[in-house]
Please model this.
Amino acid sequence: MKVMAAAFVAALIIAFCAPVVLNQFGWSSAEQGSSPTSVRLD
Amino acid sequence: MNIKLLGAIVIALATLLFNPAWAKDAPAVDRTATGGAQTLEDIMARQQKLKVDDTFRSGNLGDPANAAAITEQLGTRGGVSDSDVWRGIRYNESDIKTQARGPAADVLIQDGGMRWYQLRKGPIITYGGGALLGTILLLVVFYFVRGKIMIDGGPSGTKIERFKAIERFGHWLLAGSFVALGLTGLITLMGRSFLIPVIGPDAFSALAVGSKWLHNNVAWAFMLGLVMTFCMWVAHNIPNKLDWQWLRAGGGIFTKSHPSSKKFNAGQKIIFWTVMILGVSVSLSGLSLLFPFEMPMFAGTFGVVNSILGTDFPTVLTPHEEMQYANIWHSIVAFTMMVAIIAHIYIGSVGMEGAFDAMSDGEVDLEWARQHHDLWVAEVEAKQGKGDST
Model:
């Protein structure tokens, strides 16, 4: 059961890290908000 | 009639509902009376869901060469009427200039969007939701008819290692993220119809934003889990003759026998390949949706399908149409996966005594293993006899 819990936590960590990592490559589609360089009009 | 054959026919006919490319062509229409404009027959044909050749409209965009002189009535219109202008916009034939930039910025009208919207809020929810509920209902009935599959003679009390920690980690990474994706996907698809009337728009807004965030970002964990499980288990999931024998015996589910099997039986192999093939497909369509307009893949795919099957799928798609096809395909594949995984969860938990142990702590009862994976146990014992670990 520890492995199962570890995998679930890992999935959440990946989810939280994904937008940050993607942003490093200029891929910010998963980002929710606006920034001075990326303004969402919708 | 054979009930399996009837089921196959029903499924085949149901697929036609999703396939406008196979709609019947409308009969040729004489438009001389309207000067080439659409007629009542055209309108009636569309209402009857017949396939109408729209080139008489999409190509009728006015002719500046025939424009009235500037001194005549309507001369400043340059030979293009309001209708011509709107047709040009509708069929994406006009030279649109916009201040907004982006691959879809110059598409001002995309009427195919209505077909997507109707399909998404209608058949996708109805058939997809029905498939999920139907599967759950069938499993409940099956449980009460067949009962839990027990270990014949009871557990031996001796354990054998079934899956290593890294295998279980990959499995639960894939499973946990899939459940999260499934639930958040259902909230996104069905929330407007089923949740807003219950919890109201304000509460649903917060739930929908959270669901979208989790769906977009936990998808990467799903893809990692998919790669991990593929690499770890593909060698054990290559089909062989034994699988045919296992399938002919129905896995022993109804006969209460135990057909021979190695590490994975034919049923598990079907689940494995279903998850792998559909998992890749749902990931690709998901990436297309995650990076809007940057990964169009349906026009090219349709071109390949047409060349192989001789079908008539559209090979020129607007950016929005690409996204709409990706969205519909994503939903269909996801529902198919959910149906398969619900059955997998059933047999791996309440449906079979001792099965969950394999993925919870990695060890199963030796008697369970001998009854369901006898050849695998023999392999493991032979290796242990030689001093190898499992």
User: Anything to note?
Assistant: Chain B touches chain A at residues 100, 165, 168-173, 175-177, 180, 209, 213-214, 216-218, 220-221, 224-225, 290-292, 359-362 (CB under 8 Å). The beta strands of chain B are 159-161, 363-365.
